[in-house]
């Protein structure tokens, strides 16, 4: 089972780097791929969702762009034999605070299990939050 550094990076109980494994590591990898991908290094651009879910109007055009990016990200995961997006499982919701909530089901190809994922996007950069669930 895959293990990786915890995000945010911290210190573990033994004094070394904090790590996560299993489903927690999977959710971390997916959340990281779906976060804002802006940076100043022209050679290290990521395939993330960018700022679209936070600042665009929540309409069918912006949701279709997000969906296109989501499919592209999961095609790369599938090529790496990590995760596969379950078609037809993507759902959209808006909270009372105006956050756009994206949820979907993915198939973990390593453990051969189906998992739920949910992520919310706040309306300003200072309050961007993400949540993952199993």
What does this structure look like?
- The protein is α+β, with helices and mostly antiparallel strands.
- The chain has a single domain, classed as Nuclear Transport Factor 2, Chain: A.
- It contains three helices and six strands, in the order ββαααββββ.
- β4 and β5 form a beta hairpin.
- The longest helix is centred in the middle third of the chain and has 20 residues.
- It is globular, with a radius of gyration of 15 Å.
- The C terminus is likely disordered.
Number of DSSP helices? 3
Q: Characterize the overall form.
A: globular
| Distance linking N and C termini | 16 Å
Structural domain tally: 1
Q: Give the class from helix and strand content and strand pairing.
A: alpha+beta
CATH architecture: Roll
Secondary-structure element string: EEHHHEEEE
**Average of the residue pLDDT scores:** 75
Reported for the largest beta sheet, the result is: 4 strands, antiparallel
Strand content: 15-25%
CATH topology: Nuclear Transport Factor 2, Chain: A
Q: Write down the Rg.
A: 15 Å
CATH class: Alpha Beta
Q: Say how many strands there are.
A: 6
Low-pLDDT stretches are 124-134
The residue fraction in helices comes out at: 25-40%
Features:
single chain; 134 residues; alpha+beta; Nuclear Transport Factor 2, Chain: A; 4-stranded antiparallel sheet; two-stranded antiparallel ribbon; disordered C terminus
